[in-house]
Amino acid sequence: MFVIDDLLLRSIGISVPGLDLIWTLEQIRGYAQRELYNPERIRNQIKETRLLYEFGEMSHEDYLERTEQLMQRLRIAEQLQR
Prior knowledge:
Structural class: mainly alpha
Pfam families: GvpG
Protein name: Gas vesicle G
InterPro entries: GvpG (IPR007804)
Shape: elongated
Distance between the termini: 40 Å
Organism: Methanothrix thermoacetophila (strain DSM 6194 / JCM 14653 / NBRC 101360 / PT)
Helix content: over 70%
Mean pLDDT: 86
Radius of gyration: 20 Å
Number of helices: 4
Number of strands: 0
Order of helices and strands: HHHH
Largest sheet: none
Low-confidence stretches: none
C-alpha cells in the first residue's frame, strides 16, 4: 500500500522527504555506494590483504585475485571523486 501511495503522490508532483519510499531507497543506495567506493577504506583493505598474505593466511593466487579486485574498485572510486 505504501508503494502505491508513493507512486500516486509522485504522479501528481507531491513528494514528502522521509515518508517517500523512493527517496528513502535513494538515500540507502547513496550510503552503500559511499561505503563501497571509499578510497581510504579500499586502501586499508589492500594493506590488510597484503598482511594476510605475508603472514601466510592467504595463498598467492588468492592474494593476486583479491588485490586486483581492490585495485579495480580503487580506480573506480578515484574516478567517482573527480
